[in-house]
Amino acid sequence: MPKAPQRSRPKNIKQAGNNKSDKNTGGTSQLRIIGGQWRSRKLQFTSAEGLRPTGDRIRETLFNWLAAEIPGAHCLDLFAGSGALGIEALSRGAASCDFVELNHEAAAQIRQHLSTLNAEHGQVFCQTAKTYLENSQKHYDIIFLDPPFNKEHIDEIKSVLNTLINKDGLIYLEHAKNEEISLPENWTAEKQKTTGEVVYSTWRITC
């Protein structure tokens, strides 16, 4: 098994076999697109329990990491929430992005944002991430994985993710600093950073 560089191994993540600047005002929040064709566009969405959009600083760092990967990529935004990650990917040239979000209101807002932006290559699926993964026949180059913290969602879906990600594809993972996560052996860490209580990292899927 290829070993990830020590500098890239986030704390509290172990591999199997290896024993926001978003504004919130009242009940609404504002999401700003950082770069690409819709740069600086602002989108409003209604706050919901557990909805935690990835902030500007983290998104900017992430998409700097992915600058060479995004153009032409087929992406999946699981636990999409506000849709911030998938919309940013489309803005920066991704060929397509599927958004999976269980909350009906949040899913409807993502559809509205895609319509507002005339984004023709985004689709929204209102269902659980596990249900989507088990039934989808699609394959992806990049998967954004930003579930509600400390809910064990990653353990529920990590094995299924391997069947949908293309070889040498990338998975972006965001989790709480105090959250211990076990990942499959074929996930090789590439980048990682901690901002406040959030750890975010990218993982190359080797087979």
From TrEMBL:
Compositionally skewed regions (Basic residues) per UniProt: 1-12
Annotated region Disordered: the residues are 1-30
Report the InterPro entries cross-referenced here: DNA_methylase_N6_adenine_CS, RNA_MeTrfase_RsmD, SAM-dependent_MTases_sf
Instruction: Return the EC number.
Output: 2.1.1.171
Which UniProt key words apply to this protein? Methyltransferase, rRNA processing, S-adenosyl-L-methionine, Transferase
Q: Does the keyword Methyltransferase apply?
A: yes
SUPFAM superfamilies attached here? S-adenosyl-L-methionine-dependent methyltransferases
Fetch the CDD domains from UniProt.
Answer: AdoMet_MTases
Q: Where is the composition biased (Polar residues)?
A: 15-30
Q: Which reaction does it catalyse?
A: guanosine(966) in 16S rRNA + S-adenosyl-L-methionine = N(2)-methylguanosine(966) in 16S rRNA + S-adenosyl-L-homocysteine + H(+)
Entry keyword Methyltransferase: yes
- Give GO MF terms, alphabetically: 16S rRNA (guanine(966)-N(2))-methyltransferase activity; nucleic acid binding
Q: What does this protein do?
A: Specifically methylates the guanine in position 966 of 16S rRNA in the assembled 30S particle.
Give the UniProt family note. Belongs to the methyltransferase superfamily. RsmD family.
The record's section on PANTHER family has: METHYLTRANSFERASE
Q: What is this protein called?
A: Ribosomal RNA small subunit methyltransferase D
Identify the species of origin.
Answer: Spongiibacter pelagi
